[in-house]
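Structure (tokenized):
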């Protein structure tokens, strides 16, 4: 999962980014509204965390620009503004949620998880075939059997399951799971895919996780 943090206070941005990376999110940071708008409109994000008072463009202006291009991407405001009028103004401007500074990281993480669960085309428990993944508890099962995965293997499986039925290119996988945003060697994906298939007991390409030659991978309910 890839998150954009638009926050001009470096200490807050770094605190949030560090915590999210420990939870296996890929994170980009923008320190002003203009950079935030550019990054939000030119990249594929699963959630955007947006400060209200930003240099260049306000968070409200950035949010409205995002809504015009990407109506479905969740936007959560992080701000010291705390009146009812402020909350209403933010929500009317297109925000999905609103958290007041100072905040606890675990509360922010819970609100992010809520937004990811709230997508109409996704379930709380992600499934494909007899494989189940619970994002909240980090539990994975195959045919009812518990499967132990490393954090990176879990993040890879979660990304594929959230995009079930869609071909996930190697570029998107490396950006969302490994947080790399340049022309890097993507062979690490194949290594981890082999680990993942082995732990899940999936053999070859006649499984729910299929290789799309020269492109990437796709998860389907049936091989």
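Design, position by position:
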């Amino acid at each position: 999962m890839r998150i954009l943090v638009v926050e001009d206070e470096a200490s807050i941005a770094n605190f949030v980014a560090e915590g999210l990376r420990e939870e296996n999110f890929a994170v980009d940071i923008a320190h002003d509204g203009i950079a935030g708008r550019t990054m939000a409109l030119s990249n594929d994000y699963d959630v955007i965390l947006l400060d209200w008072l930003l240099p260049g463009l306000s968070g409200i202006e950035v949010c409205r620009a995002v809504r015009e291009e990407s109506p479905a991407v969740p936007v959560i405001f992080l701000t010291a503004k705390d009146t009812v009028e402020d909350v209403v103004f933010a929500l009317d401007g297109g925000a999905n949620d609103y958290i007041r500074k100072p905040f606890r990281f675990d509360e922010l993480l819970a609100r992010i998880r809520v937004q990811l669960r709230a997508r109409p085309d996704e379930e709380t428990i992600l499934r494909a075939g007899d494989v189940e993944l619970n994002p909240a508890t980090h539990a994975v099962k195959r045919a009812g059997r518990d499967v132990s995965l490393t954090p990176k293997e879990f993040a890879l499986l979660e990304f594929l399951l959230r995009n079930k039925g869609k071909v996930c290119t190697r570029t998107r996988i490396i950006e969302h799971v490994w947080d790399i945003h340049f022309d890097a060697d993507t062979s690490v994906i194949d290594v981890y895919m082999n680990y993942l298939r082995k732990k899940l007991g999936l053999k070859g390409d006649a499984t729910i996780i299929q290789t799309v030659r020269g492109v990437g991978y796709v998860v389907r309910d049936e091989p």
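Reviewer-requested clarification: The chain has a mean pLDDT of 87. Residues 126-219 form a domain with the Arc Repressor Mutant, subunit A fold (CATH 1.10.10.10).
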